[in-house]
Amino acid sequence: MNKLGIVTKGIIKENPVLVLLLGLCPTLATTTSAINGLGMGVSTMAVLICSNIVISLLKNIIPAKVRIPCYIVVIAGFVTVVQLMLKAYLPALDAALGLFIPLIVVNCIILGRAEMFASKNSVIDSALDGLGMGIGFTLALGIMGLIREFFGAGTAFDIPIYVDTAITPAGIFMLAPGGFFVFACLIAAVNYFSKGKAIKKKEIGCEGCMMAEMCGGSCDRKEADA
Amino acid sequence: MTEILIIMMSVILTNNFVLSQFLGICPFLGVSKKLDSAVGMGAAVTFVMVLATAATWPIQKLILDPLNIGYLQTVVFILVIASLVQLVEMTLKKYMPPLYKSLGVFLPLITTNCAVLGVTLMNINDGYNYIESLFCAIGAGIGFLLAMVLFAGLREKLENCKGIPQCWQGIPITLVTAAILSMAFMAFSGVVDGIFG
Question: What predicted TM-score, i.e. pTM, was given to this entire model?
Fold first, then answer.
């Protein structure tokens, strides 16, 4: 695969949020404004690139049996770095994102890329993969944040668009139901424009779940048995 | 006592983990197709939440805080949760096979469930004492279970729906259902203050 392809596939064809449906918690929770969404996206991207590089470097040293805990330690280390940096330099963003900064550790995208890509590919490819997936994640969060901010507060990137006009912003877009609803619209739009091809398996499948190997699809089987 | 009731009511209803704080969305969407797997997942999450809180709160207060290494919180907590889940899984497998059969399959999925790490971090951030933390974890688990059960019921009905436009089938219509359920839960805001305030 060429280098450019590795970067671009994460942005469109395999967009982690809009196509693979990974990392939904931060997608829904931190997109109350475009800036918060982008901030979360960039923080996640930083962790993703760094952890992909380190895991790719260590791929021959980490024993297969304990690889998941090892990945978690690497990821948690970088999350702590990002957390301390945000606290020091961007306290407003840190306060807005709150709990979801430490929760980057359990973002499925990061562990998923470590397991599916970085543990099998070269350092440079892994870094590029992290970059592409990170940009895809940031873009998705930014777009969603922009939509919610526009309809919910009447601003875009904190710039007033129709704040003091006759139209009242629908505050519910900033609240939990608005998050679910806007995301539903985005996924429906992706389905519409890709004619349903993008999201082949319309449910969250095992390929998206980093625990798939451990659980061997037993959660799915459990549902089939039931 | 009132304190504990307020904490529990608030995490179950007004600040429901799934529907208003967006924690644990993956299992909420992934394992809610059937009612009994939703119950199993909810019960397993509740169990792990309580255990994780029981283990992480003393670690924070007795080890991390006195040594002034609070910044290691994230690293330590996720490792504690991951090993705890492994331990629970092995114990259940060996000593309680029937329970393992019903809950065991969900356990590996819970390690990276953000609701579990979320509740342990929240307890520390909100400055709860040990008892309050434990009840907060129980409440968060019950709230998760409640949301899962309600949503599974709705989804079973949704399966029989005819006439959903093609691009809305699957995840989008499920998310719209979640939006409506979360709107319903918004009606609880103020209830806790109304009762105890």
Answer: 0.88
